[in-house]
Amino acid sequence: MTIKVIGLIQLNNREAFEEYRSQVGDTVSRYQGKILSRGSFNTFLWNELKCDSFSAFVELEFPDLEHSESWANSPEYQNLLAIRSKAMKLTLFSVSL
Hints:
The protein is of the alpha+beta class and 97 residues long. Helices cover 37% and strands 33% of the residues. Strands 2-3-1-4 form a 4-stranded antiparallel beta sheet. α1 runs antiparallel to α4. The longest helix is centred in the N-terminal third of the chain and has 17 residues, at 14-30. The protein is globular and about 35 Å long. The termini are close together.
């Protein structure tokens, strides 16, 4: 079962974000993942869950839940957390297809 991982991003520091972005792709591919799309947030059409606004999103794909969780908890990705924390606030979740 294919797993999509969606990240909702609120940018704090563009320079730190570019540093994070230049390194995160290698960690994703190491766990058989792909970055499918990146983009900017426009507007909520409905927001009954009262989600905070965000400025960008990313969509990743992994072959299964095990690979996505291994990536998120990997030493390679954990090494990026300090840069990520400086760059953004992030909500990251997975969905099954």
